[in-house]
Amino acid sequence: MLGFMSTLTALVLAVFVGYGGAWYFGVVEGNFSLLLFLATVVTGLYWLAEKFYFWPQRRRAAASLEAQALQRRAELATQGIHQVDNNMGDSHARLLMQPWWLDWTAGLFPVIVVVFLLRSFLFEPFKIPSGSMIPTLLVGDLILVNKFHYGVRLPVIQTKILDNNSPQRGDVMVFRYPPKPSLDYIKRVVGLPGDEVAYLNKKLTVNGKPLPKVALADFFDEEALRYAKQFQESSAGKSYRLLNDLDRPAFIAGADDFPYRQNCRYSSEGVVCKVPEGQYFMMGDNRDNSLDSRYWGFVPEKNIVGKAFFVWMNFGSLKRIGKID
């Protein structure tokens, strides 16, 4: 039995390691939520087996050994032998010791289940991979996302089981990329269901009202080693910075054929979209260097992951730590 469990566990761990390696090298498309869920289930089964079967079995074996040792001492005592070599302590400890395959499964279950619950229902860490949200978020920023702000969802299947706040204009939101839901994207909420969003000649208008936009000092992009025009925009009581590249045309080139595309009108000046019910219009703060709703369409409510609210680390600049506007 123990030999079988050792072999089985080695195979299970090899599958996890193999999947992780294939994901890392791009052979398969990984799903960390699913991987963490499976790890929780597997280690949980081992933890239950340890608690209710293997640990009681080892305790019985240790108790049996102790009883045999006591009986032997009693028999020797009847023969007048009272000095007996006693190495039972080592044997007793070995019998109670958890084998490696339980150390690497049941022993890790408490840690894995805590990570799973925190990541699924409370907070999830993300790393910013691109410059689409500059200057609000820089490449390499490690951020925290509030998973319950917009409602509680079941992990993996993403079914909402409890409502909370609705997304608001100006929120920085993480969502599953509509053309490829296995990818997580981060953008700013610009349009809510029913809004008419117009981005014409690099000016944003919502429901016919231009969003206030004030010029700031030019922003130096350390990645591109160039300056960009920087502005402060205000939406629904929130103020945030954005960039514009005046050398780029306002025309939206290469827009996909996305769901509800008929709600959008493209021209040489930009785009005007009517946001459908249950959908959101998202844009990056780096307005001329962001692949967003102007190109691939609206974000369904079911794709929402959470609200980005804090930069907890950037190894290139500790000054980045702080609240996300």
TrEMBL record:
InterPro entries noted in UniProt: LexA/Signal_pep-like_sf, Pept_S26A_signal_pept_1, Pept_S26A_signal_pept_1_CS, Pept_S26A_signal_pept_1_Lys-AS, Pept_S26A_signal_pept_1_Ser-AS, Peptidase_S26
Top EC class, one word: hydrolase
Transmembrane annotation, as ranges: 32-49, 101-122
Gene3D superfamilies in the record: Umud Fragment, subunit A
CDD domains linked to this entry: S26_SPase_I
Entry keywords, A to Z: Hydrolase, Membrane, Protease, Transmembrane, Transmembrane helix
Molecular-function GO terms, alphabetical: serine-type endopeptidase activity; signal peptidase activity
Pfam family, one: Peptidase_S26
Family listed: Belongs to the peptidase S26 family.
Name of the molecule in the record: Signal peptidase I
